[in-house]
Amino acid sequence: MMFFLCLILTVSCKNKTEETKNNTLKAEVPSAEIPKEEKQLKESAKEIAERFKPKDAEIVHEVIQTKVWGKQDVIIVFYASRYIDDQSTTVPFERQYVEGYLLIPDGTKNYKKVLIYKFEDDNVETIIQSVFFANADKDSEKELIILTTCSHRLELLYDGTEYYNYVFDNFDMNKIPKKMTYLSDISTSIYGGFEGQREDGPSKADFKTASDVKAELKKLGY
Length: 222
Hints:
5-stranded antiparallel sheet, globular
C-alpha cells in the first residue's frame, strides 16, 4: 500500500514539474519574440523620408541611408516640387525645383532636417544623377558632392545635356547647421559642361560621372 502511495505522489510531482516547465516555456516565448516584432515596426529610410516630405512634393532619386561624418544612419533625400511662374514672363508656365536634405537621427524617431541646397534651372527640370563623397578642400574630411543634369534644347542653336557638380562642406555633427555650406569656387572648377550639339558643332562634357569628378579633384591636389 505504501508503495502505491509513493508511486502516485511521484507521478503527481512529475506532472506538476512538467506543467511548471511548460508554463515557463510559454511565458518565455513572447519575450523572445519582442525584438523581432520591434524590428518589423522599424521604419525604413524611405518611410522616414516620406514623413518629412513637403506638401505636394515627390521623392526623386533613391533615398540614401549611410554614415556621414561619423554619424550612423543619416538619410540623404531629394524632393521635387512644382509651381506656376507668372512673374518671369508674360505667359505663366510650370517650373520645377529640387530640394536636398540630410535627415540626421536625434533619438528613436526624431531627426534634424538640414537643407543641402535648392536646385533650380532657368526653365528645365533638374535631375539628380549621383551623390557621393570626395575630398575637395584642405581638411581631411570628405565633402558631399551632388551631380545633376538638365536637358536644354533650342532649335538650331543647341540640343543636349548640361552637367553640374555641387560641392558642400562637411560640418561637426555636434553643431548641426540648418543649411549646408555650398563651396562655389571648387564647384566651378569641376563644372561638368555641356554635351550635345551646338550651333558651331558637337560638344562634349568634361566631368559627367563621379569617377570623372574624383579624378579631377586628385589632379587639383585634393
